Amino acid sequence: GWSSIVMAASSSSLSVVMVLLLCLAALASAQLSPTFYSTSCPKALATIKAAVTAAVAQEPRMGASLLRLHFHDCFGCDASVLLNDTATFTGEQTASPNAGSIRGFAVVDNIKAQVEAVCPKTVSCADILAVAARDSVVALGGPSWQVLLGRRDSTTASLSQANSDLPAPSLNLTGISGLVGAFANKSLCQTDLVALSGAHTIGQSQCKNFRAHIYNDTNINSGFATQRRANCPAAAGNGDSTLAPLDTQTPTAFDNAYYRNLMSQSGLLHSDQQLFNGGATDSLVRTYASNPSRFNRDFAAAMIKMGNISPLTGSQGEIRVACSKLSSTFYDTSCPNALSTIKSGVTAAVNKENRMGASLLRLHFHDCFVQASTLSYISHMHSSIVAVLLMQQATTLICDKSSLMMNGCDASVLLNDTATFTGEQTAFPNAGSIRGFGVIDSIKAQVEAICPQTVSCADILAVIARDSVVALGGPSWTVPLGRRDSTTANLSLANSDLPAPFFNLSQLVTAFSNKGFSATEMVTLSGAHTVGEAQCKNFRDHIYNDTDINAAFATSLKANCPRPTGSGDTNLAPLDTTTSYTFDNAYYNNLLNQKGLLHSDQELFNGGSTDNTVRNFASNSASFGSAFAAAMVKMGNLSPLTGSQGQIRLTCSKLASPGIMASASCCGLIIIGLLVALASSSATTQLSSTFYATSCPNATSTIQSAVNAAVAQEARMGASLLRLHFHDCFGCDASVLLNDTSGEQSSPPNAGSLRGFSVIDGIKAQVEAICPQTVSCADILAVAARDSVVALGGPSWTVLLGRRDSAASFPNETTDLPAPTSNLSSLITAFSNKQLNTTDLVALSGAHTIGQARCVSFAGHIYNDTNINATFAASLQANCPAAGNNNLAPLDTQTPTSFDTAYYSNLMAQKGLLHSDQELFNGGTTDSTVTSFASSSSAFTTAFTAAMRAMASCLIALLVAAALSSAATAQLSSTFYDTSCPNALSTIKSGVDAAVAQEARMGASLLRLHFHDCFVQASAPSYPITHA
């Protein structure tokens, strides 16, 4: 549990404690810190504050504008929003939520110039934005907070993500694309949503953003609506940019008036009023409206949390000299001759064989395009596949499904197959087709000779592609550098992602759209077919079967490409018969004359939506050249690995040895760190299955033995231990174990319900006997939960270790735990708030295949609900009066002490014991998952183990406390105790086994303890706040 930890710490003289939340998209070499510039640029913060104060004094609205800039940047926090568009680069400023709306760029440029004057090339634009946002709030009378620093600036931007990620003013509270979901996608909970929306206590909005609300919505004060209509006509296009204050009471004062406006139905935007509209956030709006100090506290906490959404740190990204434009100087110091060396190698190769230019360009394309485009790729994968992938990465922290994505532009296409590795070169679009590997190897060798282990193969490919185009007479462009090389490759993605030569226009548009490219950019990049050749097998169908081809052109090709499949398949023909080895716009003229070699080529000019673009490029070579350069820069920035991600290969065709290989990155890890003054150095925090391998090698076996004994003694104990972990693990910090009259054990979801504490105490005693003060209770709970499941016949999984125990327990935080009366929507929301999807929800609910529940928890279901088998209900009513009592009933009546899929079969027969159980199979979105798990035990066990890992890993609380250690590197690992307590796990296991053997129910109890421990996690911690 976390709420009020800081206040509690302050009252006990730990006022130096600051709680901070780090959201790492990758392992960073340096963590964010409020003192990051103390040595390198001690005047940075004062310089920023002075400039912000002056700007706000000159124009109060500027405070809101700077705050909004940070918000619109910080669904990423990398200063990407500051990048101006250029002829070869499209940024985020023209995205719908930004165009004509975000402002304050001149102020940021001015601040950057002042900071550069005192500390050249030191302070990032991303950090300047974060500090300026804080100082703007303070300048307008709001709270202050410590801004964590050390961000780096992005080397790219994403128009499509800006359009999709930023919440629109028309959003509802819930739903597929609602406010709650938009914030949850960034690991921000409902409290964060409502608190951050309080930024609308300052600033203004354009008529076009609130027109629909004041004319069409019914949840608006009529007098307020009338007042707003006077300056915002109903007709679209009329007065669109006319401004109105978001808070009419105190428009330039940062206070809590915004929430009072909502309570009187005077929210300016539809999305504002949704926060107080009979929904789940109403109570929080009331709290903030009546309690300004609570709002200030939560707002500051949410700003710190938002400021840590996927920052670039360490060697990732860059430090821009001017915030509005990129630096392409990545290797200027580390390898100043890299680009000239690459260019010489390309020029020599193309001079030797003209076709090589096209081959090298194609290699870059085939490398960059193999990439899961968005989270939707993984979310559409079958849950069991995701679960298997998770299980295969037992020693790598997988924090969410997005971490399974392939990255684009990572040189994965260059990796050769080996006896134990299958790369992308044998994929259908690549096999016998891509070439130029020898040239790549030669250039890499030359670069290594002057700058060992410095320049990545991915960067070499990107530069080579540009230099190949230039060598063939095409345009040049500045290549952003700093990519890292992948440590894997993906044959299936290569097969699925690369556009095929037989694609029609619709398929082409979709394939490119999946990578964030428009139809125009698709036509542009296809212009690379102005050079190069294709094999007969790729154009045979077009020249023999299609009608949209010039007859004479088809005849000329047939002479060297026989109709029978397998005959002349590899015979080559130029993609551009006019100027085969000159990079020009002749390709488009060919299309106008129905002389496209591939079916997919001619589809671009075949009476469809791209015809006009083809005509434009055919008649305007300059237009094509500039568009091609811009599209290539964009393609080169498809999800590159940066910073400490991936590796720098020595030879592009094979992985670097482990000794020089960078750590594989984890994705989306949410870490709650408790730092004290003594914990001042950087620490890389990561869960690992080998965390105790050295410190306590017998830890897991000890735990397992104890669990087995406990379950053998009482089968129910397995469920109890599993439940303990669940109730802990919306926090995973062992807070649920703390005895306290006002702690979590006495809260409604836990009181009189949780059990197995004595088993945990027994295990802890055994582990302490072999490894004093080494193995945390939180780790014991996690291992005991796993061993409980195994003891009752369920699956096993690798438990990532290295948690620390919380220092406090707070009953109010158990509101996170789903109630047995929850409906499906509430369950989905509760799990979504913990970054668990509906499959995880259904899988984790399968823990109810063991254990028992009290009558008071299911009386309402068996007496009042209609979605319950009548005979089943009657049998339960015999031992459970309508008023409810503490009599027990098994959650799974078929096999109550066996961990199997019977629970799901029960649901399909309307025999779920709890209302919340039966909601999973009640005509809703989870019915199909229940059906799948009921019929496939492997699908269930695979999904369950993956979900258990997700629950314990992604929601983990890592505490670095001075009482236990100074700022040593804290890393979660399954071998964490191998040295400090080698018998810890075996001791735990023995204890669990004994407890479950004595009472089978104990397994469920222990599992539940872990669940209840891990599920209790404040979405935003408390922070020390000073008021201006």
UniProtKB/TrEMBL annotation:
It is found in: Secreted. Heme b binds at H200. One of its GO terms (molecular function) is heme binding. Its EC number is 1.11.1.7. CDD domains: secretory_peroxidase. It catalyses: 2 a phenolic donor + H2O2 = 2 a phenolic radical donor + 2 H2O. Belongs to the peroxidase family. Ascorbate peroxidase subfamily. This is peroxidase. It comes from Paspalum notatum var. saurae.
